[in-house]
Amino acid sequence: MPFLNSLSSLCFLILAGQLALPAAAENPASIAIGTDKQLLVDDFAINQLSGIQRQLGTVTRMNAGKPIFTEGQFYGSVLHDQGRFKMWWRKHGRQGFGYAESTDGIHFEKIDDVTGINFAGDYSLSVMIDPHEQDPAHRYKAAYDAPGMAAGLAYSADGKKWTTYNDGQPVTHRAADTYNQISWDEAAQTYRLFTRTDFGTPGGGGEVRGTRSMTNPDPRQNPTDWKLVRNWIFNREGPEEVNRRQIYAVADWIYEGVHFGLMSVYEWPGDTSEGPTDLVKRHERDVMNYYLATSRNGDDWDLSWIYSGQPLLPRGPDGSFDKDLVLPSSSVVTYRDRHWLYYSGANERHGTPEVVFPRESAIGVATLPLDRFVGLAASGDKVGTIVTRSFTLTGSRLQLNVAAAEGSYRVEILAQDGQPIEGLSGRAARIYRGLDQLRHQPRWKGSTLKQLEGQVVRLRFTLHGATLYSFQVLP
Description:
The protein is mainly β. The protein has 2 helices and 28 strands.
């Protein structure tokens, strides 16, 4: 493909039909997508990419990067329910948990203390609203830090007054003193529980932070019947990698068929070589970052963003409240076309038993436009093409989340074998320029998707200075 210097040259090549589908197929199997939204965070729906890079979304800190809540910190949760933002926050000094509410997501009012839970250790509390539960008394479920440095479970009708499962006794063995998070996995028809676990150091002795995942189809009836799925640590780079990074906490937020791992990663753990306490200087070692991982089953995680050193929510600059430690909430709030990323920030390093850093902690929030966690981008003067795997068309409209404010894109409909479909490809596919929309519905010249319902097709996107985040077939 010749090098393109302008948008006009891109249009010429498109109309001349020179952007042909490559013959090779990397991911030929058909997929069943129905009318489900397809987030392009991985290659699940992708057959071929050319001139395309996967890019992490850009978050915007709210409240000018200042804390929105200074009365406490996480491990905790923020949910949106009954028209309000609801926050469960850990009080300073390990004094239990409080409950607060907000109408705008920024200004929270303290409502009550959390009662009925026998907190222990570091006081972690992860709250979910259970979509699988039929009994209103058990609508809220929570995992917490129970006695014995293990995970406990509780339920509530209002999120304030709680009753423990298993008579307040742990439902797992140790260690579980960071996030203990319970969620319902609709696709797998089971509950999942994520907790911390421990591994030994390469030379024996000591402590290496790891994480584990478990499943239980009915923790209400059988609260201790958790089946271990996986224990793991960071070790792709060998056993000494634990000196570079350790997984501190994992929360699994399930959205549009994708498991989003909200991962707190402890980087250069225990390396306090950058000097004594400094509440102004931003440190780079013995720090914690907020990364995103993705999975299709909640067990096997794509850790690419971690190994490329690209946090979803970077730590703040010198002098900020979140310059050294960032810990995500147990879930993400989706509200008014934005994802709200609540987090706890601190202005000093983690420290060790021998080196204690006094620090201040507070809660902040950043947002991300709807579905723009990860996109497929053709940057600069490059022309990029995306060809999807084949699927049966079950609707009559296509909806895209696409950013092309300074570029262009078009989408063609292809047959299962990759051949253009007359009236929906080539010159019939409109070129859209200067567009940035969360729900754009493209049209073709003289034809509609209605004529192809029930047929197996592919989509081919051509991008120039544009990023595609998702596509969805609508009825």
